[in-house]
Automatic annotation (TrEMBL):
Identification of the protein by name: HTH-type transcriptional regulator DmlR
Lineage: Bacteria, Pseudomonadati, Pseudomonadota, Gammaproteobacteria, Oceanospirillales
PROSITE patterns in alphabetical order: HTH_LYSR (PS50931)
PANTHER family from the UniProt entry: HTH-TYPE TRANSCRIPTIONAL REGULATOR, TRANSCRIPTIONAL REGULATOR-RELATED
An example molecular function term from Gene Ontology annotations: DNA-binding transcription factor activity
């Protein structure tokens, strides 16, 4: 017979990488969390959690046990939710990550709207340009931009984006407008978190490594430099469309623009998908395209 004692505490500690954080979510004392996990480790006869004064991590055995227990709890949650669904109430906690700027502009407002509809949910929204390991770092859902790496994760497309190479009219008046990729070597190219730009022409894809005076991992900073006439930048549509419409920026090399790529909801594969995660994903799929009209 399966023993559930300590499982919820163990999974929550793994998700939060913190005994204190787990205690707050479970609404019990830190000492009680620690006792439950110690008893679980004694029952299994192995160490699951490594504790130091500053850090909590899982042992190799703990990682495997966590992956199994996470799915078991998801199955239990699904069973609970099947009953709760009769009243339309979602409960529990969701941990979500998204890139900083896209998260601020698109995801955070929609997550807030979702929370207003489901007041018994709690959400931990982490906006970061770091690409987290969802299982290791305890995330239920990630919003990924662009091309996806091969993965065992489930990926559902939420929207598309287009990368625009653009500059201010003043910059182009001073330095000329490039009409071929080779001419970019004569321009100041403002780079983001990668040192290359992607292009596509006559069905062939090109990866170019331009040079410039600024390299910054923040799109807003690159946008500001571009608006101030400091160079060319390749930025997604959600940064530049208002400035293209106002005439503050213009696009160049449109014939070399890559086809649109995806914006994705990515979450761990499970035999028992979490109802709160799947409903949040469906909500985002419906609402993100509507936000383009605002």
């Amino acid at each position: 017979m399966f023993h559930w004692e300590g499982i919820a505490e163990f999974v929550t500690v793994a998700d939060e990488a913190s005994f204190t954080g787990a205690a707050k979510i479970l609404d019990i004392s830190t000492a009680q969390v620690s006792r439950k996990i110690t008893a679980l480790e004694q029952r299994l006869g192995t160490k699951l959690v490594l504790r130091t004064t500053r850090h909590v991590s899982l042992t190799d055995v703990g990682v495997i046990y966590y992956q199994h227990c996470k799915q078991l709890l998801a199955g239990l949650e699904q069973a609970d939710q099947a009953v709760i669904d009769m009243s339309g109430v979602l409960t529990g906690h969701i941990k979500v990550t998204a890139a900083i700027n896209y998260g601020e502009k698109k995801i955070a407002p929609l997550v807030n709207d979702f929370m207003r509809q489901h007041e018994q949910l709690t959400v931990d929204l982490v906006l970061s340009n770091e690409r987290f390991d969802l299982l290791r770092d305890g995330f239920d859902l990630a919003i990924r931009l662009g091309k996806l790496e091969d993965s065992s994760m489930v990926a559902r497309k939420l929207d598309t984006r287009v990368q625009h190479l653009c500059a201010s009219p003043d910059y182009l008046a001073k330095h000329g407008t490039p009409t071929q990729l080779a001419q970019l070597q004569h321009h100041n190219c403002l780079l983001g978190s990668t040192d290359y730009w992607r292009f596509c022409h006559d069905g062939k894809h090109h990866k170019l490594h331009p040079k410039g005076s600024i390299s910054c991992n923040n799109g807003n900073a690159l946008l500001d430099a571009t608006l101030k006439g400091m160079g060319l930048a390749q930025l997604p549509d959600y940064y530049v469309l208002p400035h293209l419409e106002s005439g503050e920026l213009v696009t160049v090399l449109d014939d070399y623009r890559e086809p649109e790529d995806g914006i994705w909801a990515v979450y761990p594969h499970s035999q028992y998908p979490s109802p709160k995660v799947t409903k949040l994903v469906e909500f985002l799929r419906e609402e993100i395209p509507k936000s383009h009209l605002k």
